[in-house]
Structure formats: C-alpha cells, structure tokens
Amino acid sequence: MKEMRKYLAEFIGTFVLVLVACGTAIATKCSVDNPAGYLATALAFGLVIVAMAYSIGNVSGCHINPAVSLAMFVSKKMSAKDFCGYVIAQVAGAILGALALGLIFGFDCGFGANAPQFANNHGVITALCAEVVLTFIFVLTILGVTSREAYSKVAGLVIGGALTLVHLLGIALTGTSVNPARSLGPALFAGGDALKYVWIFILAPLVGGWIAAIAWKILDKKD
After folding, report:
1. Residue 70 parent element (H or E)
2. What CA–CA distance (Å, rounded) separates 130 from 146?
3. Predicted model pTM
4. pLDDT in tens, 184-210
5. How far is residue 136's CA from residue 134's CA, in Å, rounded to a whole number?
C-alpha cells in the first residue's frame, strides 16, 4: 500500500508538471521572440517543482522525472522495483497531462513538446549535448541539496530554482526537457518532429542523470 501511494504521488506530480508548465508554454506562446512567454514558461516549470516538492515530496520524494529516479537508483537510494514503478507512474502521468492539454487547448496546440531548434545550426548534436549537460546540472543539484538533513527546508526552493535556471538557457535550444516523461507524453499527441526526435529527450536526460549520480558519488566521498 505504501508503494502504491508513492507511485500515485509520482503520477499526480508528473501530471501537474505537464498540465501546468507545458500549458503555460502553450498559453503564453513561448518562444525566443516572446520574452514574456519565455520567462513565464521557465518560471512555471520551476514553480511546479516547488509546489510538488512541498506537497508530495514527503510521500515519494517528488522525482516526477525518470532521469532523477535513475540517479537515485544508481546512487542506491531506491530499489529496482521502485525505480520501475516510479517511471511507469511518471510516464502515465505525463500522458494524461498531455491529453488534458489537448482537451483544453485543442489537439493542434503543439502540447509544449520538445524538438531540436534547427535555426542557427542548433541541430541533433546540439540538442543531445544541451540536454545531457542541463540534466546533469539539474540532477546534481537535487543530489546535493537532498544529501543533508539541514537542507531539507529549502530543498524544494533550490530544486525549483535549478529547473528554472536550466530552462532559461535550454528553451532556445530544445524547448528544455531534462525529463523523459515530460517529453514523451506531449510527443505522443503532437506527432511530427516532436515524436520523430523524442528519442533525444529520452536518451540525453537519462545519460545526464546517470553522469550526475556518478559525479556526486565522487564529490560526496568522506575520505
């Protein structure tokens, strides 16, 4: 029963992330040519994390991101069973969130989906590198701020701030994923380039999360 509560919390958290944050991107017509929408979208992703961290964080840890769960698994902070349960719940929540966006904004809304920005030589390689590096920064922040009990009161704010930070750079390059579930849900409904290139936004964040876990193991050694 406890496990199911954790999985439900991850499902709800990822649903809210996609609905509210991707929904903000749609509502504000987020683009590099629209600074207000760009900033609003970056803030929306960060603020959703803050809200969820202080609501479901005490239930599941508020991963709501397979890259974060992978880092926790590599760090031996969760079991293989929980890792699988978390990822399934996260993907399901993201799909439901994307479906809700379609019902609200119409199924031609774009769903806030990710895709490489081919203008200015920003292509697949740039997208892969950007997502690996941005996910590394985000997940390393999570591992660091959750490693000490003394940081627990501010952890949600720090993690939300870190997600806002990576969005401020990443939106112009990929729309910012750093989260395979957040990308897969919208891509399934958006189709086109979003679905064609969704593998980037599954693979790169997982690699970035794995590298962050290895890096934190080295940095956190007590010798």
Report:
1. helix 66-74
2. 24
3. 0.96
4. 999 999 999 999 999 999 999 999 999
5. 5
What residues does 31 pair with on adjacent strands? 34
Q: Which residues contact 4 (CB under 8 A, 6 or more apart)?
A: none
**How many other CB atoms sit within 10 Å of the CB of residue 40?**
16
Cα separation, 74 vs 77, whole angstroms: 8
Residues of the chain with pLDDT under 70: 119-122, 223
Rg from Cα positions in the chain? 16
Q: Are 54 and 66 in contact (CB under 8 A)?
A: no
Cα–Cα distances in angstroms (integers) from residue 114 to residues 55, 117, 186, 189, 190, in the given order? 27, 9, 8, 12, 10
User: Any bridge partners for residue 34, and if so which?
Assistant: 31
Q: What are phi and psi of 34, to 5 degrees?
A: -130, 80
CA dihedral for 29, 35, 91, 48, sign (positive or negative): negative
Task: Render the burial of 57-76: b for 16+ CB within 10 Å, e for the rest.
Answer: bebbbbbbbbbbbbbbbbbe
Look at residue 137 and give its three-state secondary structure: helix
